[in-house]
């Protein structure tokens, strides 16, 4: 039994109402998100699949990976997707001092801002770990902290690619924010599940938008 549920329970959303868990809508819209990139080959593959379905997504990028692969980061921008901050070094909020954590977020933002200047500040904490004080500080800096409604568990080696797919199609609904990863660790499950998720919901009349 997983400690972290596939579908975020309502009680968690009520405990942290200042975080974005899903988008309230009556329209057939789903919000795909991808964490941990940009990653050679995998991110580019993801962009190609999304384009086939005219789908837009939000990429929560690690600052260090942007520095290593600025050309792939530029591909994300060129395809019209939205960028979010995923810290500079993918650190855990629960085991980090608030000042250290904030500095890591701001370091990633500096990297992002070299290639993209806007006031649309989105942040997702690695591992979903963030202390209330850290969250309050970031909200004070005009960040929207984006969590999720559905976890695909694409990174989990104990989850089969078929289970990864079912995690999404059995739980996502109008306004769901879904987490995938454009990373090496998650690539096997993600590359199996993503095209099928896009096809499944496309056939049901859904569109895919960025945050």
UniProtKB/TrEMBL annotation:
GO terms for molecular function: hydrolase activity, acting on carbon-nitrogen (but not peptide) bonds; metal ion binding. The lineage of its organism: Bacteria, Pseudomonadati, Bacteroidota, Flavobacteriia, Flavobacteriales. PROSITE patterns: NODB. Keywords: Hydrolase, Metal-binding. Residues 28-209 form the NodB homology domain. Pfam families: Polysacc_deac_1. GO terms for cellular component: membrane. The keyword Hydrolase applies. This is Peptidoglycan/xylan/chitin deacetylase (PgdA/CDA1 family). Coiled coil: none annotated. GO terms for biological process: carbohydrate metabolic process.
